[in-house]
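Tutorial, part two.
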Amino acid sequence: MSPPLRWETDGHDWPHRMASRFVTAAGLTWHVQEMGDGPLIVLLHGTGAATHSWRGLMPVLAQDHRVIAMDLPGHGFTRGRPAGGLTLPGMAKAVAGLLNALDAVPSLIIGHSAGAAIVLHMVRDGLAAEQVVGLNPALMPFPGVFAPLLQTLARALVLNPLVPRIFAATTRGAGDTERFLVKSTGSHIDHEGLRCYAKLMGNSHHCRGALEMMAGWDLPSLQRDLPKITAPVLLIHGNRDSAVPTSAVEQARKLLPNANLTLLADLGHLAHEERPDLVAQAIRDFAPISA
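Running the prediction step on this input gives:
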């Protein structure tokens, strides 16, 4: 197992490094980025990503908002383990603890992929967010009879210390990373994004965190609770997403009492990295600036 990523070396060219700081909260040391002034927006990335995934969208939103993003537990430069592990409840409680320590009450909270599941779990448990956005949200269980098998396989992979090493070894180059991302997400992103993903995915400690997060996910419970979430929700989805099918997002929209769905043409699972301008406009149309 490779050592955790080191901010002094691995983070020397991290996007928006000047906006970064480290915060101790909920038993973890968090890598947090913050920029802008105004009503607060909080950003939660998806499995296997980190704050770099907001490199294009965050500055646009920060033109008229205070924006906070963090590396989730087990990911990037955040250190420590939530009391509940890298499960949906454990991650949601840890993020809520960080926001409480920052005295941060968001007017809008945005989650990408699995980050959207964390957001909705937090809102269900009483987070005072006025509005919610899910970007290419992973909210529904894997379809079909193989779903339990897939999660069991993920748990077995986490228990095998060789698996994160092998995965990291196969994705260390930018070319390998690009091929993997195109195949798994349907997205074509810029060189800076590829460089950051190569660094993350080439680190077995980070890969283990992503695998453990997948192994501990309980989406059936969240699915049952979606009808209880009454906050306004906008789901934004790239129609070329090869990770989360559009049908699953449409199903989630029907379960949420106050949700709308915006489809973006010719974009994949990382739509907010491909076209942050289009995603920002959809967010602004949904949540106009309020003082």
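The first helix runs from residue 57 to 61. In part three we will examine how such features are distributed along the chain.
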